[in-house]
Each structure stands twice: as structure tokens, then as C-alpha cells.
Amino acid sequence: MKKIEAIIKPFKLDDVKEALTGIGVIGMTVSEVRGFGRQKGHTELYRGGEYTVDFLPKIKVEVVTPDNLVSKVVEVMASAAKTGNIGDGKIFVHPVESAVRIRTGERDEAAL
Amino acid sequence: MKKIEAIIKPFKLDDVKEALTGIGVIGMTVSEVRGFGRQKGHTELYRGGEYTVDFLPKIKVEVVTPDNLVSKVVEVMASAAKTGNIGDGKIFVHPVESAVRIRTGERDEAAL
Amino acid sequence: MKKIEAIIKPFKLDDVKEALTGIGVIGMTVSEVRGFGRQKGHTELYRGGEYTVDFLPKIKVEVVTPDNLVSKVVEVMASAAKTGNIGDGKIFVHPVESAVRIRTGERDEAAL
Amino acid sequence: MTTTRRSTIALAIFFLVLSISGSALVWAEQAPAPAAPAAAAPAPPPKIDSGDTAWLLTSSALVLLMTAPGLALFYGGMVRSKNALGTIMQSFIILALISVQWVLWGYSLAFGPDKGGIVGGLEWIGLQGVGLQPNPDYGATVPHQAYMVFQLMFAVITPALITGAFAERMKFSSFIVFTLAWATFIYDPLAHWVWGTGGWLKNRGALDFAGGTVVHISSGVSALAAALIMGKRKGYGHEPLRPHNLPLTVTGAALLWFGWFGFNAGSAISAGALATSAFVVTNTATAAAALGWMFSEWAARGKPTVLGAASGAVAGLVAITPASGYVTPMASIVIGAVAGFLCYTACNVKTKLGYDDSLDVVGVHGVGGTWGALATGFFATKTINPDGGDGLLYGNPGQVGIQIVAIVASWVLAFVGTTIILKIIDAVMGLRVSADEEMAGLDLSQHSETAYALEGQATVGSGGR
Amino acid sequence: MTTTRRSTIALAIFFLVLSISGSALVWAEQAPAPAAPAAAAPAPPPKIDSGDTAWLLTSSALVLLMTAPGLALFYGGMVRSKNALGTIMQSFIILALISVQWVLWGYSLAFGPDKGGIVGGLEWIGLQGVGLQPNPDYGATVPHQAYMVFQLMFAVITPALITGAFAERMKFSSFIVFTLAWATFIYDPLAHWVWGTGGWLKNRGALDFAGGTVVHISSGVSALAAALIMGKRKGYGHEPLRPHNLPLTVTGAALLWFGWFGFNAGSAISAGALATSAFVVTNTATAAAALGWMFSEWAARGKPTVLGAASGAVAGLVAITPASGYVTPMASIVIGAVAGFLCYTACNVKTKLGYDDSLDVVGVHGVGGTWGALATGFFATKTINPDGGDGLLYGNPGQVGIQIVAIVASWVLAFVGTTIILKIIDAVMGLRVSADEEMAGLDLSQHSETAYALEGQATVGSGGR
Amino acid sequence: MTTTRRSTIALAIFFLVLSISGSALVWAEQAPAPAAPAAAAPAPPPKIDSGDTAWLLTSSALVLLMTAPGLALFYGGMVRSKNALGTIMQSFIILALISVQWVLWGYSLAFGPDKGGIVGGLEWIGLQGVGLQPNPDYGATVPHQAYMVFQLMFAVITPALITGAFAERMKFSSFIVFTLAWATFIYDPLAHWVWGTGGWLKNRGALDFAGGTVVHISSGVSALAAALIMGKRKGYGHEPLRPHNLPLTVTGAALLWFGWFGFNAGSAISAGALATSAFVVTNTATAAAALGWMFSEWAARGKPTVLGAASGAVAGLVAITPASGYVTPMASIVIGAVAGFLCYTACNVKTKLGYDDSLDVVGVHGVGGTWGALATGFFATKTINPDGGDGLLYGNPGQVGIQIVAIVASWVLAFVGTTIILKIIDAVMGLRVSADEEMAGLDLSQHSETAYALEGQATVGSGGR
Ligand SMILES: Nc1ncnc2c1ncn2[C@@H]1O[C@H](COP(=O)(O)OP(=O)(O)O)[C@@H](O)[C@H]1O
Ligand SMILES: Nc1ncnc2c1ncn2[C@@H]1O[C@H](COP(=O)(O)OP(=O)(O)O)[C@@H](O)[C@H]1O
Ligand SMILES: Nc1ncnc2c1ncn2[C@@H]1O[C@H](COP(=O)(O)OP(=O)(O)O)[C@@H](O)[C@H]1O
Fold first, then answer.
1. Residue closest by Cα to atom 19 of ligand 1
2. Which of A4, A28, A64, A93 to mutate to test the pocket of ligand 2 (most atoms within 8 A of CB)?
3. What gap in Å lies between CA F150 and CA D55, rounded to an integer?
4. What are phi and psi of E85, to 5 degrees?
5. Which CATH topology does E50-438 take?
6. Domain residue limits, chain E
7. What is the spatial distance between Cα D427 and Cα B91, in angstroms, rounded to a whole number?
8. ipTM of the assembly?
9. What is the pLDDT of residue E24?
């Protein structure tokens, strides 16, 4: 099993979710993160002050899948999340050694 | 070392924390996430509109442990987090190559 | 490639970011987490009640780097995040199997 | 679905009541048109005073503000975020419900022609006979309807106060039925006893300037009954059921302070010396109570809390309410400071007794209101209000006795009445949401809404209109 | 940068106007100093009444509160968090803009000496001749400037209401130009038609006590034009464009309810029977409408929502506005309950028609205002207000006809006028922010700010002053 | 624990003061009971006017609202979330503290029988002799206590304004001591100088209608002293110390605008032409200042900010305050627009000077108040207020000189006095929280509370009652 972790633009979440469910992925976990990268941040004004905010809102999507689906999932995510503009984000693949479904105690691929 | 990552129902956090400290785990990191899975979401109403919210609030608990404790930790977490209803969540085990305690510079298992 | 994941005190983020950009790291992802560990929490009062809050605010910083930079990044992070007081946090190193830059489709080290 | 069906029936009943009473009465009112022109040509004796009317209308608006957004925010900030809207909604919808109930039958029951000292008659139903000329019984210099709408705001806030006791766990439909029944069977008669012409407590000389018994004892004691009957929230005692947004709570407390000037000084039903005196003692007692609570807590636990200061202010407002038209500023400091200390203590005792009065309605309104009603018996003086009475400290110990009668009567009516009403509702339709609904929160389970979507909307929703 | 340059020009123009009119008029006013001492020695006939003045000033302040923070929060809570400040800003800055516009030329256009029933003359520009003595045309017992500033608050809130239609997508600079043009070319003449001495609708006997046509139809219909011209928000129909902070929205609605007492009861321009009557029916209609919407939604969708109850209250306030000085409490229940049902339905119909009136200005103000103006023609009665008129139900079907004329006239002026103004602005400077700016939100793109930094500030910023 | 012990002592002292003064005075007041019946049978000459009283009570309530929740939210939204409650608390508890201080001794020091033009005597301590009949010196048509409580609200908001200067770093216990000392030794005498019968600045003819010197210069200049003595916040200059909740801040600003009508128009102590004039110029100047700041910033930095518009409005309110009873609407536009520009500039200059006046009290109140006091010397005219004076532009250059004397005197008293008080407190008990406490935030370190628990409560707490 692998965990596929994608950092994407927030407004792309819906597209990514739909693309994934389209290929049969039925579970995923998402969280709000802030990204620092090539994409430049913005300036905020506050009375006498000016701040540069260089951490931008991003969404992290995590999907654990059997090995044989990894390339499919990565491909689908990458195309759904793409706008072609800087800051589109990254996809990382991590190894996962085991999985458990808490409700049933099922293990590994059966747990997904 | 392994990182054990559990996605659980929010109100189960306290039980999980207590179960873990009960077996001697003294550190963990938690965060708020949203989960998509078999558990169905809910509908929200807003004047003329109706939205389906299918990302549900979950808590991610991360514990890094020495290899020999992994199965114990997984077991304890699974039983503490279980309600038996759909959406109880998952536990994933990831390899960790090294660890550092920032305060002291201690490494690996000594760092936990 | 490795993913270096550091759990640090929130007010140290700026120092860590600067230290990292100082050695040429150009991307990272951060998120807000709550940590439980040796550092003790605080008490809150609410009319007749008293609560112990033992999850403290921390920041998680994630950086994916080529293998050859790992020790450098860990070292720099550890020294930038250090105050010497309890609760400074941890750094964990995880294996990463592959990476994709969504915008271009570039792979692995070229994607970082 | 059950919900839909039941609500449709509710709706049907509601509109039935509306159309019957409404249309019927539009015409009923139209009929006595000969009486109405009187509005255009007023009889000489009772003359409307523009200053008094301005103040009474202003005060009515201020008391409305106390319920929403005042109390709505005060309570709404103290619950967990998943119940924020549901809690706010309870105050808001009571404002709507009682506003209609009061003009249809509530005012008549409370202030209509006396029936044996116990209740007002139905003669004024639908505001028949409640016109725009002064009713000298209730205010010789203001339109009768101005008095009516001022009193309406009191009828609104009282049941809203109770909602703090059963916060985070009551079914919305049962809550609506409870509110209407409570207003009709407890509030309206009690208001008659104390303030209605001919009311038996009024006749006995009980002093309650702005609602220590009618508003605070009645709500605080009903809260006790409700907390006992409803049972504890899931997680009570081991999960931290802590406030989700204290800035909202402090904002609510400050709005209560602001609006309470209407409540107390407005109760003079005129803009002169008495209103001024009530205004001054209200402010002073509130301040002293905020300090009293804060210093008590600081001494007892080592930290002065913001919620404590805000709660103390509310305790002071409660305690001074019955006394506000009768006491001196110096007495009000004592009344307030003691209220702060007493109510703080009461909230701590609750934790030991173990019932789950979620937002401390008993400790603040029950205890504070009782103390205030008693203190009126000690500190009242005719130098402030010749139409009032002298208290114990001004040589009239009998007043304390009268006050105790009023207190006991209010306690009994509220406790017994609320218990009966809740038991009946429980039997018929249930009081509590299910365990799952409680876990999900009132916002989602009762209203299909969530209070906040502060960041990254994309993560929390999906699907379109 | 373009923005800087353009804004500098804007600034220049602004200060030019200010210095010319300002300095010129300071002296202009100084010149007729002989006239002013009159303030010190008033002519006998019109005598200022302190109670009426107290109420009118209080009412003016209340109506200001309706716009900010009332409407600002009501709308601000309903948008996504990235547009929260931008939305709040629109209400806030309209308050500033129109407050200046009104004293410089707006009041003169609306209430100045009549020109053919269509518009006021420029004689009162810069408040020349608008002094501290009563103007019996507009209020025989209050200073003329008190009436002027009360009306100012109406001129402020009306364009602010429209902003809900183009929320989350309009350029701030274009919005400012639009507001000034709309106030000058639509609001000011329309106010003259209905309320100005000599206005043609007033002369015809159209009844609009507090602004059903002038405020609500004009804003609601302009909103329709704006929604059609501006187009839909990105993501409309597939992304959840849902409210980010409903506690703010309910707070805003409650403040609107509170402030509306100034709006309606203040429109009596005196503190007596008429103000009281307006106060009572305002409260009753609002309550009935909140219930009407809530029960309609409950029946239709199975859940009573908090936003629904709040929206219903606003719908009721809108509907009772034109009728508030003319109808009985029982009639107000009917007006309110129908408004709740009608506006709920209108908001649902919108979803089917497909234009993006983001915060339902058409459904609430357009529909509610039209219903209210019509209902005035049904329910008005001289028993309440001898200076008003009788409606259909009181034997005068003609009133309905007059009301329809007023409704149609307002619809046409608002729709055509707004369309022309927006088309011109669109051609000259564009109306919408760019797609990227819309994605980033108005807060960042128009104001370089973010509304909330509720947690872990460290994550969201960096860099110093 | 030290804290507990110290606080218990504080508590002891507090209740000692209370019981001594309280009980003593209840009886003291009871003694002159023969004097009190006068309340029931007023002497003919000074007659209470219900309209004036209604307006003064309304105004008092409005000014209370300015401090809490107005200023509490305005400031509370501008700090980081970990200091939100601590900041709100400072305004809230000042309201409690000064409400008691004022009735016990503050009012007597400020308005009691004159001692050499410098301070009021102690004759009115505990409100002895401050009754419900008018005191013609301060208001011939309202109860003396109504004037007292109106002035109380001014005494409350002034020290609350200062808290913006030392936000996010002052010890709560030291802050309480500072507040009481500052009110007693600076505010009370200064109020006497300018407004007390016999005060030396009043005698010289200094014009300060509603508090340019007494309220704004005194708070703004004390803020400067405090910022210099307290030092900078940790992280100042490299961390982004940015506002955590701007919707709260704008809400606060709007409530300040609303409440300020009570502040300025209430200062007429009557509801007539003068109050109306003050109301109108207050609104106009505020609007012009919001625009002035916004356009200045837009031109200088390319973006109009929401915080800028809100800050501009407050700057305008400040600047018009001393002038509000003396100037024409056209003059008020100039006063406001200049205030917006000046205060914006001052806030930018601060960044260069490098002291950490956290929420810009100096830039807004110090600079704005000074400008307003000066502008009064330019624009005042007897055509508006025959009891006022003419300014430079109306042929009386001498008024500018008098205003400068008043400005300088206020600056000196505030700066020197605040410095002395803070130095003494620093020596005795310290002013700042520890570095760790500052890092943790005032909410946790001073009050053991957190402002928000908006999501997933489970993650943030544990353990039960
Ligand atoms: N080395 C890295 N490790 C972890 N996250 C990264 C890394 N580089 C980039 N990211 C994440 O990816 C996001 C997008 O990266 P960025 O360089 O801005 O643009 P692009 O994806 O187009 O290359 C960043 O905001 C950050 O969240
Ligand atoms: N393949 C997956 N990858 C990552 N997270 C998952 C995956 N499947 C489920 N989850 C997480 O587990 C949670 C529970 O899963 P769900 O299918 O709803 O119920 P159950 O745990 O009972 O099977 C989801 O909300 C999601 O956060
Ligand atoms: N075994 C662990 N697994 C995951 N996170 C941990 C673990 N131990 C500690 N942490 C994280 O590191 C933070 C700091 O740990 P703590 O024990 O308080 O102090 P220190 O870092 O000085 O040893 C914790 O708040 C928690 O977020």
C-alpha cells in the first residue's frame, strides 16, 4: 500500500474529489495547510504597517491505496488539480506498511 | 521506528489519549482533518439552496514509536476508538527513518 | 527523497523558514497541530469548572528534499527551532518514493 | 418524513390560529370604529407626554435588544460551536413567538381586567380595547399600547433566560411547545399577580420594580426544574464543555447591561426623577457585582476571569432589578457586591450538587433574583419613591415578610408549573434530541446548518444548489 | 500603478468638491448670519418639542445602526470568509459617502423646493436654509436639521441594501461611483416623488409611511437589474457558496429589528400615539414573518433554519414599512405572515430562474416591499392615522389603485435607472473584479486585508513593519 | 500562591472600602431624609423636562455602549487572538471600576464645589447632595443624578481609550491600580478644569463641548507616556502583530459612531436645536474623516483598507468632539476630512519613530483631539451656540489662543501625571507581564481563559469539572 499525498489549490478540491471517486476511490482525508514555494504571496496593509504573507492556503489530500492503483491515482489527481499556473502543488507517494479499519478490525487492503 | 497515524471520530480523542498514556506512550501529535468515506455526510439548507457536505470532521492522531511497540499501540488505539458504527476511521503504519529531539539533539528512539 | 517533518513551537516558524530558505530550500508545507508530550499544559477556568488543557499548539513543517540534503535540513531546522526549553518538539524523517509537480508533470527531484 | 409531517401540522395550526384570530379581529377592531376616533380627539384628562413616550419606546427597543442579540450572544458564545446557532435561535425565535402570543392573548391574561387576583380576563384578547390613549392604571402619560409593547419585551426575555438551563440538548419542536405553554400558564399569571391591577401580590404590597420575581425568580427556578428533568448533557463531568467564543459572550453581557437601562429605568413609565434614580442604581449595582464576582474568583482560584466579570455584571443586573425604583446608590453598591459574591458561590455549589444547569440560570437568575427581592425588603426607601415603601433598614420590617411571601409564591408557581409542563411534553413528544443528534450538535440536527465556515470552504462542503 | 493613479485622481476630485463646496459654503452660511440669530430667538409659531426631538434623534441613531453594524453583519456573515471584510466595507463606506452627499446636495434634491413634482431644487445645497428651527412641512415640532439627518439615514441604508445583489464580485472603485450616481439619480428623485412637498406620488395620495417604495422597492428592483448585469459568481451552481459566519448574520438581523423601530416609529416625527402604533405593528409583523418563513421552510424541507427565521424577520420588517403608520396590530400579523411565506417562496424561485442575486435582495426587499406597498392599500385605516387613508378593507378600493401606480413607478425608475448607470460604469471602468481577484476574494484583492487570523498567527504572516 | 494572596488583599481592601463608604453612606443619606421628600414636592424654579431627561438617559446609555461593547470590540479585534479576551476585559472592567469610583468620590472631585479652580471638593462624596432635582449649574431641566451618570460614562471611556497603547503586555493587577489612580489624579481634576463650575480653563473661556481635551487629549497623551514607559511588545518590528478579527473591529467602530451621538449631542443636556446641531456635525465630520483616511491611504499605498476607513471614522469622531456644539455642518466636513488625513499620517509617522503605541491611541486620539481643540478655535460660531464663542474665522482670533492654553495644559497634566503614576506602579509591583506570559498571551496568563474554541473542542481540552 502507498499513501498518496497531494498539496493542491483549495478551489480544486471538488474536482479532485470527483475525479477520484470517478476511478473508484472511496476514501480520503483532507486538511488545511499553508504552502510556501515559488508562488509568491501577497501584501497586507495595517495602518502604519505592511506585511508580506508568504504562506498561502492549500489543501492536503491523503489517499491510501493498494500498490496497483498508485499510478492511476497519481495521474488522475495530477490532471484534476492542474490549472497550469504556478502554485498548483505537488503529489508525494509514501510507503505504508499496514492499515486497520477501526470499526471491524479488518487489515491492510481490506481496510481501505 | 514507525509512525502510527489514526483517523478517528473527534469525540473519541480523549479515550484514545487515555488508552495510549495507559500503555506508556508519552507523546503524540493531533490535528483536525476532514474525512470522506463510506459514512455519508449531511445536508445543509441555505435559503433557496441545499448542499451536501460529504467531508466530515475527524481527528488525526500521530504517534511515533519504537518498532516493538507498534502492534501494541495499534491494538490499543483501535479498541479505544471503536464505536462499531460506520466512520470509525482507520489506522495506518508508516516507516520512520530517524527522529531528533530538538531541545537536546537526542536521536531516534531516545528522541521519542 | 525524504520527507522531513518537524513539530515546532509556533513562534519559531519564522526562524525555521528563514533558516531553510537560507540553505536553498524553496518549498515547504506547514499546518497547525496540537501536541501532547512532556511539556505540561495549562488550566482553564470556567465558572464552576476547571479544565486541564494538555494539547498545546504546535506547528508542523513538512519539507521534501533529495536524499543528499536531508542531514543538512535536519540540522538547520533543529538549530533554528531550538529554545532549549521543554516542548521544543521533534523532527522525523520519512521515506518518499516519488514526487510530481502538478503544474508541469515533472517527476521526483525535478518536482521539488 | 415524520418531521415534515409534524411540522406541517404545526404550521397548519399556526396559520389557523392566525387566520381565525387575525381576520376575525381585524374586523372586530374595525367594528368599534366609533370608539377609535377618540384617538383623534382625546378626552382631556390623560394627556400623552412626548418625553415619557419617547423614553418608553426607547426602553422597549432596548429590552428587545437584550434578548436578541444580547442574550442570544451571551448564551451562544458559552456553548460548544456545534450548538452555537441552535442556542442563538432559541432566543431569536422566542422573540417571534411571544411577540405574537402577547398581542393575541398574553397581554390580556397578564394585564387584562382582574379575575380574583389570579389572572387577567380575556377581554383584551387581540388587543381589543388596548388603544393609543393612556390607561391611567399602567401609565397616565403614555399610550396604552406603548405600555403593552414594553411589557411584551419582558414576556419575551423571561422564557429566553430559561433556555440556558437546557442548552445543547433540547428538541426544537418540543422547545417551541414548551415556550408557548410556559408563557401562557406561568409567566402571564405571575405577571398579573405582581403587576396587574388587582393582582394579589400587588395588593399585598410586594415590591418588584422591574421583575425580580416575575422575570428572574420565575426563569431561574424554572431552569432548576428543567435541568433536573432534562438530565445532563452527554460528556458532562469528563469532557470539557467549554465556551466556544467568549468575545461573543462578553458582547452579549455588555448589550444586556446597555439594554437593562430600558428594563429598569423604563419601568418608571416616565422620564424624570424616578427613571434617573433607577438608571443610576442599575449601573452602580452592576459594576459592584462585576467586581464582587471577579474579586471572589480571584481570591478563590488565583485568577480573575473575563467570563466571571461578565457573569458578575449580569448577576448585579438581576439583583438590582426588583429594587431599582426604591433604593439609593449606596444601597445599590451593597446589593451588587453581595450579588456578585453570592452568584459566584452558587455556580460553584452547582458543580458539587451535580445537576447540569448548563449556563447557570439557577445560579445567576434564581439566586440573584431571590437576593434582589429580599434586598428590596431591606433597602427600599420612600425618599426615593414615595409610591414604593420603606424596608427593614428604614424602619419597616414588615416589608421583608411581604417580600418573602412573593418569593415563595414565585418559586412554587415556577417550579411546579414548569415540572408539569415538561412532564406532559416529555410524555407526548419527548424533550431531548437523540444521542446521535446531541453528538452532531443542535445546529446540524435541528436546523441543518453550521455556524462557521471560517476557512477553506472547499473542505467543508460540496454539491451545488 | 494604475490603481494608485486612478485613486489619486479620485482623491483629488473628492477634495476638490470638498474644498469648493465646503469652504464656499462655510462662508455662504456665515453671510446670512442675520438670519441665524433667529435660532436664538425663535419665531413663536413652530415650537420645538423636546420629547419629539429626543425621539427623532434617537430614531436617527437607530437607523444608522441598521446600516452599520446591522446590515454590514447581516450581509457580512452570509458571504464566504474571503469576502467578509469587502462586504462589510460596502455598508460602512456608503454610510460615509452618503452622509457627505446628502448634506452637500442630496437633501436638496429630495426635499428642497419642488420642481414640477419630479425633484427638489438646488436651493438647499450645502444645507443652506436648512436650519435649527422647525420646517412645518416636514415636522412642526422638531428642528429642520433633525428631520434632515433622520432622512439622511434612509438615504444611506437604501443603496447599502443593494450591495447584497452583487456581493463577492464588484470592483470597489466602480462600486463607489455607482453608489454616488444611484443616490443622486434614483434615490433622491424617488424620495421627492413620495415624500417631498409637491412630489407627484405624494400629491396623488400614495401611502408609504416609512419607505416601502422609496427604500425597499427601489433597492430590491435595482438589485435585480444589478444581478442580471453583473452575472453570476464563479462557482455558482456547483460550489457551495455558503455563509461563513451565521452568528454574525443573526446578530445583524437582530440589530435590524432593533433599529427598525427608529425607521418606522421614528417616521411619525413625533413621540405619541402614532409612533407607538407604528412601533407595535412593526414588532408584530416582524415576529409573524419570522414564523411564517420558518414554518414554510419547515413544512417544505423538513427543517426550520436559523437563517430562515432571520430572513423572515427582515422580510416582515420590509413588508410592514410602508404600512406601519396606517394599520392595526391584527392586520400587521397578516401582513407579516404572508411576507414570510412570499419571500421564502421568492428565494426558492430565484434558484430556478438562475440569476445570481447573491444575498436575495430581490426576494426579500423587492418582493417584500411590493407586497407591503400593496397591503397598505388593503389594510390602511384612518382610525389609526387620520392623516393617512382608508384601504380596500375599509371601503376605499381606490387606494389600491394609487398604490399600484406608486409601485409601478418605483419599479420602472429603479430598473431603468440602475441599468443605465451600471452600463455606463461598465463601459468606462468595468464592474467586476478579475477572475483571479474573485478567486482570491475581495478582502485581499480590493483591500489587502484578511478578516480573520484566529489561530497560529505565525502560520499566516511573516515580515515586519 | 502569591497571586492569590495579593488578590485576597486587594479583595479585602475593596470590600473594606465598600463596606465603610457603603454602609456609612446609606445611613448618611438616610439621615437627611427631611431633605429628600423635596423629591416628592419639588421647588418651583428648576423643572424637570421629560424630553430632555429622556434624551440624557438615552445618551448615557449610548456612551456606555461606546466602551462596552464598542471600544472593547474595536480594540479586541485588532490584537492577536491570544490577547483578545484580555483586551476586551480591560474596557469591560474599567466600566465596573469607574462606575463605583465615580459615585464614591470621582464625581465629587470633578464637579463638586470648586477649590481654587483646580479640583472639586469632597462635599459630594458618595453622591451626598447629588439628588434627583436639577442642579442648574449643570442642567436646569434634568435631575442632577442624570447629569452625574452621563458624566460617569465619560469618566469610564477615557481610561479605556488608553488601554490601546499598552495592549498585549500589561499585568492585569497593575492595570487595575493604574486605572484607579489615573482616574482620580488626572481625569477628575482635568474634568474640573474644563467643565466644573469654577474650573480655571472654563473660566478662561476654553471651548470643549464634549471632551476634546478632557477625553481625547488626556487619553492620547497618556497613551504616549505609557507606550514610552512600557516598551515594545516582543516581536515588534519583525513579527506580524496583526489584527485577528477585523469584523469585530469594524463592528466596534460602528458602535462607536452610533454611541457617539450620545456623547456629543447628549452634551447639550437638552433635546432641542443644540443637540440636533451637534448630532448633524458629528455625523458629517465622521463621514468626511472616514473618506479622508481612506482616500489618503488609497493614494499613498494603492489600496483603501477597511481598517483605514474604520480608523478614519473614529478620528473624525474624536476631532469633532470639542467642536460639536459650536460649528456648522460645512465646517464639520473640513474638520473631519483634515482629521482623516492627519491621523493617517500620524500612524505612519509612528512606525518611523519606533515607539510601540500598539493600537494607535496617540495617532488617533492625541493627534485628532489636538486638531479638534484647535479647530474649535477656528470654526466656532455663536450663530450655532450663543453660549459658546466665535472662532478665528468668525473674527475672534483670541479664541485660538485660549484653545492653545487648554491644549498645552491638558498635554502637560496627562503626560507628567501618567509618567509619575506608571513609574510608581512599576517600582512597587511591576507593569509588564513576564516574557513567557506575553508569549502565551494575556488570555491564558492573566485570566486562564481562551477566546475561541471554534472547532473540534476535543482537540483543545481534556479533563472534566
Ligand atoms: N519541497 C517541498 N516540500 C513540501 N512541500 C512543498 C515543497 N515544495 C513545494 N511544496 C508545496 O507545494 C506548494 C506549491 O509549490 P510552488 O513552488 O508554489 O509551486 P509549483 O507547485 O507550481 O511548483 C507549496 O505552496 C507548498 O505547499
Ligand atoms: N483510502 C483512504 N485513505 C485515506 N483516508 C481514508 C481512506 N478511507 C477512509 N479514510 C478515512 O477514514 C474515515 C472513515 O472511513 P469510512 O469509510 O467513512 O468508514 P469506516 O472507517 O467505518 O470504513 C474517512 O472519513 C477518511 O477520513
Ligand atoms: N512519540 C511522539 N509522536 C509524535 N509526536 C510526538 C511524540 N512525542 C512528542 N511529540 C510531539 O512533540 C511535541 C514536544 O514534545 P515534548 O515531549 O512536550 O517536549 P520535547 O520536544 O522537549 O521532548 C509534543 O507536543 C508533540 O506534538
1. A87
2. A28
3. 16
4. -70, -40
5. Ammonium transporter fold (1.10.3430)
6. 50-438
7. 44
8. 0.95
9. 53
